[in-house]
Amino acid sequence: MIATAKVFTTGNSQAIRLPKAFRVSTPEVWISKSGSGGGMHIQPKPTADDLESFFEELRSMPTSEEFIPPRDDAPTPNPFEDWAE
Questions:
Q1: Are 26 and 45 in contact (CB under 8 A)?
Q2: For the CA atoms of 43, 53, 48, 51, what is the dihedral angle to 10 degrees?
Q3: What is the pLDDT of residues 12-23, one digit of tens each?
Q4: DSSP 3-state assignment of 38?
């Protein structure tokens, strides 16, 4: 859906008056700029409840040994160990 919105300045801030069809039901949003063409992406800012439900979902997922492969914690050999001046 595409619509036209009014841009206005109040004090030192610039604001965009959203059309009724684009209203959001959250007190804050995240906004990001895409490219140099001036395109913007707006999404609701997650609340603490949203994040808590995300972490609950994450904890309920089965773990896999393949998710993070084992590390080799052996020290890296010194490449100059046998080098003499």
A1: yes
A2: -60
A3: 999 999 999 999
A4: coil
